[in-house]
Write a structure and sequence with these properties.
Blueprint (H helix, E strand, L loop, with lengths): L12 E4 L3 E13 L2 E10 L4 E6 L9 E2 L3 H12 L9 H14 L2 H11 L10 H22 L3 H17 L1
Antiparallel strand pairs: 1-2, 1-5, 2-3, 3-4
Helix pairs in contact: 1-3, 2-3, 2-4, 3-4, 4-5
Length: about 170
């Protein structure tokens, strides 16, 4: 039986759906309940958190490489679109936004940012809307920065320009 070679290595940036962009610090073996497990040790520096994901379950858990430049371009294009706000109750919409953010799908996250973005002259956002918007924006910014090799400030500026440009249109 040949062992499947891991597609991820230490120092690779990866996306874990529930937490966003992290960096693989190491691959270690641990014994859990009498079984030897190989684990990716992933650091989420901004959140001061370390996650250990069994290498065998990484794909199932949704661990993936950073988005390609094409996907990033698609996400930026998504931001330019017109906000699609359903008429459903807020609790229902909030749940859908939460699912999109935690899907780890960059395009879905861009949709949340687009739909919840408010220009200065628009109505106020509720606290929960603002929380979801900021969570989605942070995920989007971090992944775009990591994928394009920019810093987060630069990525945030580019995203903001797109959103403000859209509002002006």
């Amino acid at each position: 039986m040949t062992k499947k070679k891991n597609e991820f290595r230490p120092n690779d940036f990866v996306v874990y759906p529930a937490h966003g962009v992290g960096k693989i610090v190491s691959i270690e073996e641990q014994e859990v309940a009498g079984f030897k497990l190989e684990l990716f040790v992933i650091s989420f520096e901004k959140d001061k958190m370390t996650l250990r994901v069994p290498t065998q379950k990484a794909t199932e858990a949704g661990l993936r490489a950073l988005s390609s430049p094409d996907v990033v371009a698609h996400a930026m294009k998504t931001l330019k679109g017109k906000a699609k706000v359903k008429k459903a109750m807020w609790s229902r919409r909030a749940q859908e936004y939460e699912q999109k953010i935690n899907s780890g799908d960059l395009i879905a996250i861009a949709e949340v940012v687009r739909d919840l973005h408010r220009a200065d002259d628009q109505r106020e956002q509720s606290y929960s809307e603002r929380q979801l918007y900021e969570a989605a924006l942070e995920r989007l910014t971090r992944e775009i920065a990591a994928a394009l090799g920019n810093d987060e400030t630069q990525a945030a500026r580019e995203i903001d320009q797109v959103l403000v440009g859209r509002a002006a249109a």
